[in-house]
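Hey team,

Filing this mostly as a record. A colleague (T.K.) asked me to run one chain through the structure pipeline before their review meeting, and I want the input and output archived in the tracker in case anyone asks later how it was produced. No errors, nothing strange. Just documentation.

Input sequence:
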Amino acid sequence: MVEKEKIVIKEPEKKEKEETIVDAAAKIIDRENLLNYDYVIKNFYVVQGSTSLSKDRLNLEKISNIDLTIEKNANEPQILIFHAHGQEWFADTKENGKTIVDVGEHLAQILRKQYGFNVLHITESYDLVDGVFDRAKAYDYANERLDEILKENPGIKVVIDLHRDGIDENRHLVTEINGKPTANVMLFNGISYSNEEGEQKEFANPYLEENLAMTYKMFLLGKIYYPEFFRCIYISDYRFCLYHVPRSMLIEAGAQTNTYEEVYNAMEPLAHLINIELTCK
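Output structure:
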């Protein structure tokens, strides 16, 4: 009698859990604090007086688990960069014409050449139309154009509205990164809620949770890699141009008191963090 060969079934090897952005941040900030509403509101956010960011809206457990990663594709744009306020100058550029649009092109080039994203950079002006300067109407013009652009480019997964801030003339938002003078950057969310009127249902943002996840995780990445880079996450009551796709961000790079070089230099760390956010959970 021939003894049958004993079959041994091996258990599959356990795959190590992939480290998330929150896991990485927990090495420098206590995990309980990262998921603690009161701590995060106090240390990460500045909330405009006309609105409020409730614990229900800022569900940290939920937004920390939203997957923001995308696949890189050389054949079609995945990232759109535009400027609702393209006529934003810097302290030393009123004569040579350099604006936030030029800074946006630098960001686009880094994301293309260094990180392999297909980036569409729109340089059209929305705050100066037919010779009329109007920043209030700029978002209406920009939103109409975004509808067209996204219809023409259905592969776009990320929309970035890049600005520079307007602040008190006595303030200078600058730090040093990699030996270069670098403008500080502020992340921005519009939450479609005002204290006076409540939910702005007519101007709702269906992707608010994803928007909040984008800025929250980006801010954590800043703490990990460039602790002095981000100023805060600013919360406003309107939706601006943040409602077209889930991965939308409004970013304020420096201010009118910064030099062009300082804001230009800020695009290197910003691109680095964008790449990590879009490739890591």
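Quick notes for T.K.: Helices lie at 21-25, 31-34, 37-44, 60-63, 100-113, 135-152, 208-225, 260-279. The mean pLDDT is 93.
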